[in-house]
UniProtKB/TrEMBL annotation:
GO terms for molecular function: electron transfer activity; flavin adenine dinucleotide binding; succinate dehydrogenase (quinone) activity. It is an enzyme of class 1 (oxidoreductase). Its cofactor is FAD. It is found in: Cell membrane. This is succinate dehydrogenase. Gene3D superfamilies: FAD/NAD(P)-binding domain, Fumarate reductase/succinate dehydrogenase flavoprotein-like, C-terminal domain, Succinate dehydrogenase/fumarate reductase flavoprotein, catalytic domain. The lineage of its organism: Bacteria, Pseudomonadati, Bacteroidota, Flavobacteriia, Flavobacteriales. Residues 36-472 form the FAD-dependent oxidoreductase 2 FAD-binding domain.
Length: 669
């Protein structure tokens, strides 16, 4: 096992990346076609990486479990992508984006990586515009920006409420070009089942053809994992139902450290849970908090009346509404970071002021009436409409909202059968993004030589909480502008290696282990479906490793998940045969979720502080804010796999050193 070395370059913060690039080893263009690279996952991070590496001349094999890279969960990132271009002239800069990201992550991220992210962010926008991504523009044709939580500038570029989809189409067009040139061999409907190590280096993967059921061996000189986050360990989340941790977890079990697994982001603007049969949750973009105001009834009797259906939101006078984010955080208001907004919503609902009537009382209002009126007046002035009627003001304001967010409102109405222009949206926090992931050094390489991890699958940039619109930024930064440089430094030693054989003992053994697991699942005549166990795990995770955690609940979670794991391996039932079998796919993924869930609880139990999305009720201020312990916990918790028993996971610490900013209590008041 390699020593935990972050490989942060020496020198001033703003010179680290450029100096590092200037002194890295290269692979000459005439040698790149001698090198094979596997990319697992073809969302924004994986798709951009595969396209860029192929453009450079490497032989790329790209794998996705979907029927097309266009199905990647990246399309669900609706609201926008951050970049420090300061088009609005409101004081933004590379340093301010860097500082906002460090602060938003509650001072639990690596300084050098975050600065590099801010530094290359501007290049992403230029790249995407050249691909034809239809970013929103102002009246004069300039690219438009809006604000997201945790900042006081406008730096978020957007394409209505479809930003992730449009960015993915841009990356996919680049990927498709390389597929057409033969530089990328695309493996759709294939899932990585294991990583193969030869002489301690990542040299390939075992994949399963999800159509035929065939187990396949694929070799390469390096493997890139870009498989996204692990939010579906909670069963209900805003992630696509196929999103999983398996690729990242498989490399963890082969020696890659897993960092900060307890750092999970709860997004504040999700459509509330509506029943026990629900299989996933739907996110309403954070961009809506630019224009919507979040509130609950000020009077407890009004909240009860709303839940019982005796009172409607529009009938509650403004003076009887508690705009609690504006009240508690006047400087940022409705645009506080996600973890802050989520905890505030939970506090109001726990106090009895929730408005949803689904037997949980978990819901608050996201109201656009103020913005509709404001923009209606502005539009009337622009159109020289003197003394406009209330209906004209409403129509003009609604048209402005529709232009900015129209598809989000359509989506909400289709799901809830309520018109959000006339009735405030009902929202409540839900599991969304995972800041934890595979530990990587400055070069995005895991503790396994030759195994690189990009995008949400790694831990590197967001600390304990991710700012909105930064996921797309990180994915494309890693894929387009970081990995193609750093992987060359590693591959420069492989130009004389030649093709990697798949006939070695390591590949044969890995293939047999996967086939044995397939045979087990197909022949185990248990009593319960895979979803039965996944739902049980999800309830434990949400109730005891969710928005609020304490030592007793975490200890219970570890023990309860152990029982679910035991029951799973004895009583899981997978119907059908091994070809085209979604239940078999889920069985492998849920087996990994069960192991990960225990590690998340263990990591949360060990971190005796509150920071970002990790909120321990024992470590909070009297006002209910997170209370860090910088003296004892200013580190990334990096777990090394030593065996199936959770107690065999070994903790290593990467101390977080801040040389360019002052670490202080995070405040948005």
């Amino acid at each position: 096992m390699n020593k935990l070395d972050s490989k942060i370059p020496e020198g001033p913060l703003d010179q680290k990346w450029i100096n590092h690039k200037n002194h890295m080893n290269l692979v000459a263009p005439n040698n790149r076609d001698k090198i094979d690279i596997i990319v697992v996952g073809t969302g924004l991070a994986g798709g951009s990486a595969a396209a860029t590496l192929a453009e450079q001349g490497y032989n790329v094999k790209a794998f996705c479990y979907q029927d097309s890279p266009r199905r990647a969960h990246s399309i669900a990132a609706q609201g926008g992508i951050n970049a420090a271009k300061n088009y609005q002239g409101d004081g933004d800069s590379t340093y301010r984006l860097f500082y906002d990201t460090i602060k938003g992550g509650d001072y639990r991220s690596r300084e050098a990586n975050v600065y590099r992210l801010a530094e290359v962010s501007a290049n992403i926008i230029d790249q995407c515009v050249s691909q034809g991504v239809p970013f929103g523009r102002d009246y004069g044709g300039q690219l438009d920006n809006r604000s997201f939580g945790g900042v006081q500038v406008k730096r978020t570029f957007y394409a209505k409420g479809q930003t992730g989809q449009q960015l993915l189409l841009g990356a996919y067009s680049s990927l498709s070009r390389q597929i057409g040139k033969g530089r990328v061999k695309m493996y759709n409907r294939h899932e990585m089942m294991d990583l193969v190590l030869v002489d301690g280096k990542a040299r390939g993967i075992i994949a399963r053809n999800l159509v035929t059921g065939e187990i396949e061996k694929h070799s390469a000189h390096a493997v890139v994992i870009a498989s996204g986050g692990y939010g579906n360990v909670y069963f209900l989340s805003t992630n696509a139902m196929g999103s999983n941790v398996s690729a990242a977890w498989k490399i963890h079990k082969k020696g890659a450290y897993f960092a900060n697994p307890c750092y999970v982001q709860i997004h504040p603007t999700c459509i509330p849970v509506h029943g026990t049969a629900q299989s996933k949750l739907t996110l309403m973009s954070e961009s809506l908090r630019n224009s919507g105001r979040i509130w609950v009834p000020k009077n407890l009797e009004d909240a009860v009346a709303v839940r019982e259906g005796r009172l409607k939101a529009k009938d509650i006078a403004p003076e009887n509404r508690d705009y609690y984010l504006e009240r508690r955080y006047p400087a940022f208001g409705n645009l506080v970071p996600r973890d802050v907004a989520s905890r505030a919503a939970k506090e109001r609902c726990d106090a009895g002021f929730g408005i949803e009537n689904n037997d949980t009382n978990e819901g608050v209002y996201l109201d656009f009436s103020t913005e509709i009126t404001k923009k209606g007046h502005e539009s009337a002035i622009e159109k020289n409409i003197h003394n406009p009627t209330d209906q004209q003001i409403y129509d003009l304001g609604k048209a402005w909202i529709e232009e900015k967010y129209g598809n989000l409102f359509v989506m909400y109405e289709k799901i809830t059968a309520e018109n959000p222009y006339e009735t405030p949206m009902k929202i409540y926090p839900a599991v969304h993004y995972t800041m934890g992931g595979v530990w990587v050094d400055y070069n995005l390489q895991s503790t396994i030589p030759g195994c690189f991890v990009v995008g949400e699958a790694n831990f590197s940039d967001h600390g304990a909480n991710r700012l909105g619109a930064s996921a797309l930024m990180q994915g494309l930064a890693d894929g387009y502008f970081v990995l193609p440089y750093t992987i060359a430094d590693y591959l420069s030693a492989d130009i004389r290696t030649g093709a990697i054989s798949t006939e070695s003992a390591e590949f044969t053994q890995a293939e047999k282990e996967i086939q044995d697991k397939v045979d087990f699942f197909m022949n185990n005549n248990g009593a319960h479906s895979v979803d039965y166990f996944h739902k049980k795990l999800g309830l434990v995770m949400w109730n005891k490793v969710g928005m609020a955690r304490d030592a007793e609940g975490l200890q219970q979670a570890i023990a309860e998940i152990a029982e679910i794991r035991k029951d799973f391996w004895q009583n899981v039932r997978v119907p059908g045969d091994s070809a085209m079998n979604g239940e078999l796919e889920k069985a492998f993924r849920v087996a990994d979720f069960l192991e990960l869930g225990q590690l998340m609880a263990k990591d949360a139990l060990e971190r005796k502080e509150s920071c970002g999305g990790h909120y321990r009720t024992e470590y909070s201020t009297p006002e209910g804010e997170a209370q860090r312990d910088d003296e004892n916990y200013k580190f990334a918790a990096c777990w090394e796999y030593q065996g199936a028993d959770i107690n065999q996971e070994v903790l290593h610490k990467e101390e977080l050193i801040y040389e360019n900013i002052e670490v202080k209590t995070r405040s948005y008041k």
